[in-house]
Design goal:
The protein is of the alpha/beta class. The protein has helices at residues 30-35, 48-54, 56-62, 72-91, 153-161, 228-241, 335-343, 356-359; strands spanning 12-17, 25-27, 67-69, 95-97, 108-110, 115-117, 128-131, 134-137, 165-168, 214-217, 220-225, 246-251, 262-266, 269-272, 289-291, 321-324, 327-331, 347-351, 367-372.
């Protein structure tokens, strides 16, 4: 089918599901430190493991060497869970596309400015923004994911052959000077980089943003802007989409991603982490019905030994995937969330996803919907 995706809730027809194969380690560098935080103000330290992860001295000790080996059993269980998502989507009648697998000997990529490990194409949502009939590859915020979209090229070429537009936002050089630490006015709980180093390739601040900073609602695109990198990317999106979409700026709701914070489940209904989120949203959205499930508890998640890093927000299970305006895929471990959605007359499809906080990402993160039945509607 032709590329067509304007929202996250109209009936889903085609989707790309990521792959965890080869996810051998997590690399800590300046880009990783700036990205990882407990996103919403007031939740820092909610999980002890996250507080420990943010402690500089403990972090240095734990990251010698810099490669953080991930336990093989957890990785195999992650792979099993991702494949379970594929099976469930296909059972629901959705066409599923998959990325290429990185070759086993592909362990590092090199640019003129830095080296980085290769991260498999798992959280596809972050580096691609689909706007109607256009693929927009966004400028990555993590060096380890700089070439991740190369694994999606065959699928993108297929949509291009059927008439899709295909655009790549400016690729950042990504030296240490490219990142905005915003020391004077940081976004909630943002990491300030330690000891940034000069490079002969410094070109100043650059546009950098993940597509998961964005919320798509028909003709409207809402962009969370938490630093000057995001602001430059917002300016690019506003100019590029002018005349086709209305682009709205939302300042510092989170440090980056918003798809575990505000989730449109259908026109007129939002799933929110907290009622406080409404204060950040464009005014028309503040009149929508709101579902705020009870806050997660530590016992809701697997606990890990030996200081394994726990990057994502404790609210990661709000990262649901809508199959249509009445049907939502939810982690089967989230009994309270499932019950809450069912009380609001949603049909819940429970699917297993065990190590979502260890590896980062929920169902919305590691999928990229490419065909839904909705169009450029006036939702706000």
């Amino acid at each position: 089918m032709r590329l067509n995706s304007f929202d996250d809730f109209t009936p889903l027809k085609e989707i790309i599901v990521g792959s965890a194969d080869g996810y051998a380690d997590r690399i800590r560098d300046l880009s990783f430190d700036m990205f990882i935080s407990d996103n919403l103000s007031g939740t820092r330290g909610y999980f002890p493991s996250l507080s420990t992860w943010r402690d500089s001295e403990a972090r240095r000790q734990r990251n010698e060497p810099d490669r953080l080996a991930l336990k093989e059993r957890f990785l195999q269980e992650l792979i099993e869970d991702v494949e379970g998502v594929v099976e469930q989507l296909e059972a629901l009648g959705v066409t599923v596309h998959r990325p290429l697998e990185p070759a086993a000997d592909l362990t590092k990529v090199t640019t003129p400015a830095w080296d980085a490990a290769v991260v498999p194409p798992l959280n596809l949502r972050d580096n691609t923004l689909v706007m109607g009939d256009e693929i927009i590859e966004t400028p990555p915020t993590l060096r380890a994911r700089y070439f991740e979209n190369q694994f999606l090229k065959p699928t993108f070429m297929g949509y291009f052959a059927q008439g899709a537009r295909w655009t790549v936002m400016p690729r950042p050089v990504m030296t240490d000077a490219s990142f905005d630490p915003d020391n004077d006015n940081p976004a909630p709980n943002i990491e300030v980089p330690e000891n940034p180093q000069p490079s002969p390739y410094d070109s100043g601040l650059e546009p950098m943003i993940d597509a998961a900073n964005c919320l798509r609602l028909g003709r409207d695109l809402i962009v969370n802007v938490a630093n000057r990198n995001h602001a430059l990317a917002y300016d690019w999106l506003e100019r590029h989409l002018d005349g086709r979409f209305r682009v709205h700026r939302m300042d510092k709701l989170t440090q980056s991603h918003i798809d575990s914070v505000v989730v449109p489940l259908r026109p007129g209904t939002l799933l929110l982490r907290s009622a406080d989120v409404l204060d950040y949203l464009p005014e028309p959205l503040r009149t929508w019905d709101v579902i705020v499930p009870p806050a997660p508890q530590i016992s809701d998640y697997p606990q890990y030994e030996n200081g394994d890093p726990i990057p994502p927000s404790p609210y990661i299970d709000l990262n649901v995937l809508s199959i249509d305006e009445n049907t939502v895929m939810v982690n089967d471990a989230c009994k309270t969330l499932i019950r809450t959605l069912e009380e609001h007359r949603f049909t819940v499809v429970p699917v297993r996803h065990r190590h979502r906080r260890l590896f980062g990402g929920g169902f919305h993160c590691f999928t990229l919907d490419t065909v839904r039945t909705g169009g450029a509607e006036e939702y706000i």
